Model the fold of this input.
Amino acid sequence: MSAPDTPPSPLDHETRLQAHDHTALRLWLRLLTCTSLIEASVRQILRSEFESTLPRFDLLAQLERHPQGLRMSELSQRLMVTGGNITALADQLETEGLLRREPVSDDRRAIRLRLSAAGRKRFAEMAAGHERRVVSLFEVLSHDEQRQLLTLLGRLKPHLVAAKHRAAKRSPGSRRSRAASPHASLP
Done:
């Protein structure tokens, strides 16, 4: 039971923990909870301040990083979503004047997407709002604590990537669907 002046904890991934659970399990659920809360906050700012969604932001971010544009198939791979999802997003963003479709000279079946001038401007506004929100979410940690956490997670990440590759080699037929990505939903 929480103290009278402490608000009750929200139900989240950590609520399933027991006192005897391993530290690694506790850490995983804490990371999952924090990730979910951060993503929800980012989704909220994109929706309320920019009338946008995380998948739209992610697509615009990929195009901003590649001024020459990207083929729709490349975007599908980078965002881990189906080609149909990319087509639907591209249709909306093109209608809003934020991107344009261009033919690919060496492959007449392929289409390249590129940000328009309006798309670059809109993405810059969204990216600044996104950055402000993320910075504010981590302000409870000092700069040194943020760097320490980044370093620790940086040590963990290659181990997790290697474990994923080892598991994939053991069971090559069990690939996850691209649509299972956390950002795979359409706007």
About this structure: The radius of gyration is 20 Å.
